[in-house]
Write the structure tokens for this entry.
Amino acid sequence: MRAESTYQLARAFHVQEDYDQAFQYYYQSTQFAPANFVLPFFGLGQMYIFRGDSENAAQCFEKVLKAQPGNYETMKILGSLYANHSDQEKRDIARQHMKKVTEQFPDDVEAWIELAQIMEQTDVQVNH
């Protein structure tokens, strides 16, 4: 119950664009959340992106994806976060996520562009 309450407060602050308060309540909600309640991690991940902290954002979205393996939005966000990562393994994960997204949602132009950019980077690195 406490996780849901703090999550709802976080959402309210998020909608009002009070990102500092939203961050605090999303974070609090993750501390109380049972393993199957991953919405606070999705919100907290968004706040980390807003703050420019892609490492912590990725950790949050990985938790969401672990609980909801086929989650389209989460795969898309992780794909974007990992696309320009210095670690080749993360870029490979980005490619896999974007490939799944484009297979599930072939009309998602953004995902196709992101996948093409990842493939292009991989191609450039292989040929140099």
Q: What stands out?
A: Residues 98 and 115 are 6 Å apart (CA to CA). The chain is about 80% helix and 0% strand. The two ends are 55 Å apart (CA to CA). The longest helix spans residues 109-126.
